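Bumping with the actual sequence this time:
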Amino acid sequence: MAPSPATDVPVFKLYGETHHWPTPDLLHCESIPERSRLHDWRIRPHRHADLVHLLHVSVGDVALELEGSTRQLQGPLVIVVPAMSIHGFRFSPTIRGHIITLARPLAERLDTRLAEQAAALTRAAAYPLDEERETARFITLVAQIDEEYRHPANGRDSLLEALIQALTVELARLADRGPQLGSQPLPRRHDRARGHLQNYLALIEGQFRQQPGIEEFADQLGMTSAHLNMLCRRLAGRSALQLLHERLLLEAKRQLTYTNMTISQVADILGFSEPAYFTRFFKRLTGLSPRHFRQRQHAE
């Protein structure tokens, strides 16, 4: 049987990158030209298992490829690409704007705090910014996020989260107008498999500090560990254990960067029986000991 086209689409953390989430923050912000010019303005179709993209295009043209269809769009506009949605872009060299990527824990937190408004992050869509006041609000919020992301200061984590909440509310107001430029839910193809993966990621989010075994996770999902691993590798490009370890590593980075807890305390809250086990885990995945990672973060 020929493989489904969706299984041939590469799964990235950020486009072109297969290593771990590169920041202790729950979001990543960069200008659109920063990455796209490295790829001759062409971002080929790919998907993310656990990331949401928000693109703010202030100036320029973009051909948006989304789940097999292509739309020619022009700024100013905002594009939403939910997790698991196959997407690609062809930007004009005159493009100006930013791409903000939300890690799953932040998307989950927004869903809890903003309820219906956060639903705008789950619908693939492109929204034109028609009103001058509306455009100005997005420009201001995105500029503040970019500034805070690039120049950390006290309270960075709290301010970034507050700003992304405000941006999500603005996005929900755009969505309230109704479908814009082909707004669409994720396709039904592979819905069941995608649902299993999303359920597994939700279990990780709720239990990663206890570090359950993959067999225990699989039991909670009503499947075998082999089936769970197959789904994770096919849809997320990583094993079930790798996905758990990525979440542990992200939390470890956050605790080492934003708290004064000792390394032993961080190891304890993340479910490691001994600090030495935590140190080996962290160094194996990052190439740095927890102590050296903390020193580097505080020196930047």
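The tokens above came from a reply further down the thread. The CA atoms of residues 24 and 250 lie 6 Å apart.
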